Amino acid sequence: MTSTATTLAWRNIWRHPRRTILTIAAMVFADTLLVFMLGLQFGQYSMMIDNSLRIFTGQMQVQASGYHDEPHMYRSIPAADKLAQRIRKQTQLDAVSPRAYGFALISSDTRTIGAQVSGVDPHYEPRVSTIPGLVKQGRYLGGRMDNEIVVGSILARNLKISPGDELTLLGSGRDGSIAATVSPVVGIFESGSRDIDRQMLSMPIDTFREVFSMDDQAHSIIIGGDRDQADRIAAAAKAALQGNEDLLLLNWEALLPGLKQAIQADFTSAWFMYAVLIVLVAFGMLNTMLMSVLERTHEFGILLALGVRHGKLGRMIITESAVLALTGMLLGMLAGGLLTWYFLVNGFTYPGMEAMSERFNIPSVFHPEVSIRSLLPGPLAVFIATLLASLYPIWHMRKLRPIEALQAV
Predict the structure, then answer these.
(1) How far, CA to CA in Å, does 161 sit from each of 109, 136, 157, 262, 360?
(2) What's the rounded mean pLDDT across residues 94-118?
(3) What is the mean pLDDT of the chain?
(4) What is the DSSP track for 139-174?
């Protein structure tokens, strides 16, 4: 696109200022909305991922090979506390906590239910999980060797227990021995995840190891931290795992594949709505360019009679469309970026978010994302759609014959 052609195209599109302004305004509105909605969507996804990981999963986990697919007790991490300490030193991150899992029959005075028992480090667990801050009745766990448990709210309701009651645990240890203990309930938590609240209870990890014959082992080492630093943390954690070929470092996508698929499905469905908006803008561009071609039929007839080829006229029309679309795209990206940046700085919230944040220990506001993937795709799609819309006016122009065009009024 030469500077002369661009200048000529700019002059042509401003022959009718009102029509041009309305067309550009429609593109700017669509681009602004697309940029903001995409930024809002990516911000929601980040918040959804962070909240899901913060409840119990952690940013990433170290596990024995094969444990994630088939979680048997014997697939464990030896010397887990020492390895966790090494990872803390290597990553310079305190949010590293060993965790062990087992299954047992849990009996109260009135009922018996099967549930998952997790052994956690009470000192480091609050740094990788929000559950310690979600205890609604009683308190969280004390020392690593205290014989006490905290129970999910739905499980507690099903067992008809409250803090101060005792539960009997009966399961199988890592070495095949019988794992049995009687422990007092010191707290009841409500995580917001029905699966966790319905089937999980936690006890200090050293008590768990004694009951389930785990020695110094664990099934996972949970690593927290910010997702923005995930690559650095992962590299440092892998360095700490050198010499342990049987251990794997799993990121959140491997740990929660269902969450990733849900985000992909939501993103795909959202683009159907965006596509409707893009098509509407493209039809507006089609109308503008078609009116421009029809109004200049006599002019095109003169040019054709002077020997100008259809192809050159077609390039002129596509240049006008490109200039018009590029102007709308740049202004839309600027307006959308500024709007998204405002909410990035000040935060965005929905009615009821504050009550939800207090209940589930999550942030009450979230921040849209301002990045290339939120700024560019929407306006670029509008730009391409408007260029495609100009193909029909070009096709209409190519059917013109000089004599017929000269006779047009």
Answers:
(1) 9, 14, 7, 35, 22
(2) 94
(3) 88
(4) ----STT---EEEEHHHHHHHT--TT-EEEEEEE-T
